[in-house]
Amino acid sequence: xxxxxxxxxxxxxxxxxxxxxxxxxxxxxxxxxxxxxxxxxxxxxxxxxxxxxxxxxxxxxxxxxxxxxxxxxxxxxxxxxxxxxxxxxxxxxxxxxxxxxxxxxxxxxxxxxxxxxxxxxxxxxxxxxxxxxxxxxxxxxxxxxxxxxxxxxxxxxxxxxxxxxxxxxxxxxxxxxxxxxxxxxxxxxxxxxxxxxxxxxxxxxxxxxxxxxxxxxxxxxxxxxxxxxxxxxxxxxxxxxxxxxxxxxxxxxxxxxxxxxxxxxxxxxxxxxxxxxxxxxx
Length: 282
Ligand code: PAF
Prior knowledge:
Layout: E1 2-4, H1 7-19, E2 24-29, H2 35-47, E3 50-55, H3 65-70, H4 75-85, E4 89-91, H5 95-98, H6 117-120, H7 124-139, E5 143-147, H8 151-164, E6 169-173, H9 193-198, H10 201-213, H11 218-230, E7 235-244, E8 260-268, E9 271-280
Parallel strand pairs: 1-4, 2-3, 2-5, 3-4, 5-6
Antiparallel strand pairs: 7-8, 8-9
Helix pairs in contact: 7-8, 10-11
Bound molecules: pantoate.
Pantoate binds at residues 28-30, 58, 61, 128, 131-132, 150, 153.
């Protein structure tokens, strides 16, 4: 596995692979890697000749300075995990390398980026579009892999790809969970022991809501999930929205779409956790 820190080194490696006719898969990450990331690498490993993983905590997607400052950074452990997972190249650039000058691009991401995370984290998705478009331009991958935990992010990246005319396949990989149902997240390490016991209630209540939904309206289901979680200690729902799985726009009835997903953000103490569940799969 080659660990690469500069864009020029990365580009020359990639052009060598491409000249040999190799198919390249990219797994963009912000490090603090866990089994969820490993499942993306496993997926990429099966489908490509070369697997490139980027590890970069992208400052432009953090709308909260404290969140950026406390974001976990575990580079040595990340390299060990990636080596064991069979990655070929790890790209770990500095902030100065990626942003020698401020990135002032504003992407016209439209409605998919305006709701949920877009509404609660102003600028977040523009920052994601900035870094992912830079990575796509540097690596020129045939496929790129993203986890469905960040369900809305995948729709936003698809929109950015359409806007920029990148020719690659975006592969969405299923959420990885702990045995008790908690979605794997780099932020989980910040939960206290008590919060860690409480956090699996998010997925438990989402699952229960699927039964509830069979005899209740969308509006009642939103209230059921929100009220059940808010009734628990240390839990505060930021939003729960039930949306069309492609457009991310809220649906008002279960007949509104063939793909309906509930997307939640919950504060468990200070830690912001996100998760989602499909009510109707495509
Ligand atoms: O999902 C993430 O970890 C990040 O948003 C991404 C896609 C790596 C961009 O920084």
